[in-house]
Design goal:
CATH class of the largest domain: Alpha Beta
Oligomer: single chain
Number of helices: 11
CATH topology of the largest domain: Nucleotidyltransferase, domain 5
Strand content: 15-25%
Number of domains: 2
CATH superfamily of the largest domain: ATPase, nucleotide binding domain
Structural class: alpha/beta
Number of strands: 13
Radius of gyration: 19 Å
Helix content: 40-55%
CATH architecture of the largest domain: 2-Layer Sandwich
Shape: globular
Length: 322
Amino acid sequence: MAKTDETTPFLGIDLGGTNVQIGVVNGAGDVLSRAKRKTIAEEGRDAVLGRIVDGVKEACDIAGVPLEKIHAVGMGAPGPVDPGTGIVLEAVNLRWTNEPIAQLLGDTLGKPVYLDNDVNVAVYGEWKAGAGRGATHLMGAWVGTGVGGGLVLDNKIYYGHHLTAGEVGHMILMPHSPPGLRSVEHNCSRTAMCNRVRQLIEAGRDSIVPELVDGKLHKIKSKTIAEAYAKDDKLVVDVVHDAAWRLGTMLAGITTLLSLEKIILGGGLTEAIGEKWVERVRSAVHIHAFPEVCKSVEVVASELEDNAGVIGAALIAQERCD
C-alpha cells in the first residue's frame, strides 16, 4: 500500500451503543466531513452495518472525496475487540459475540478496515491530536451510555494479554450491593444516573426534572441531567456528585497502580455537564491517589469531544496501513 501523507483521506467510524459517528479525516487529523446514524442494535448486525455504509457514502459526498480515493478505514467498536483479526469479541450493548466486523465491512466497502475498541480509538485521537498530546502514560474514561476506558502506556495503546485492557466500566466498585448495582458502569454511567434520578423521583423526591421532560421520566438524557444540574436541582446534584466521587475514587486506584501522568474524561455526560463534572472527579482522584507524587496526575476534559473517536479511528488506520 502506498505511503500516506497529511493530505491522504481516511474514514473514521465511531460505533456506539446509541449512535454511529462517521467522518472523512485527512492524515493530519483534520475532519473534512461528518455523518451520523442511529445504531439501533436490536435490528441486528447486518442492519447496523448497512446504516454504517449509508453514513460512509454521505460523509464521502459531503467531503467531495469519492470512496475510491479513501486510503483505509478505522473503526472503534464498544467492548473487547481483537485488533489483529478485526473481530468484536463481546459487545454487550450491541449483542455481538465474536463478530468479524472488519472483514464484513471491508468486503462491502472494498477497503481495508482496522478495528479497535471505541474508547481506545478516542483516547488515541486525544493522545495524537487533543488533550493527551505529549503524554507518555495516560488513561481515558468515557462516560455515556456505559463507562469505557483506554490506556496509553509507554507511548502506545496498551491491550494486555487478553486484548481487553481498559474495560473499567465492568470493574466491581460496590461488591456488597445487589446484582446489577455493583460495577462502575452500574454506578457512574449516564444510564445509571438517569435511572437513579427517575427512581428517586418515583419514590417522592422533589426535582425539576419532570418539568424538563414533560413528565416522561423514561426520556431523561445527558442534556436533562446537565440542565437540572446547572439549575442546582438538589436531587440531580446529589446523584451527579455521588457518581463523580465513585468514578474518581476508582480512577485514583488505577493511578496508584499504573503511576499515570494524565487522565482524560470524555463521553456524552462529560461533554454535557462540562468542567464542574471534571472538577468533582479530579477532586476524588487527588484525594485518593497514592503516594503523594501521584496526586499530581492531571485530570482534564476531552479536547476533541465528539470528534475524538472519528479522528482516532482514522489515525489508527493511517498508522497500521503505513
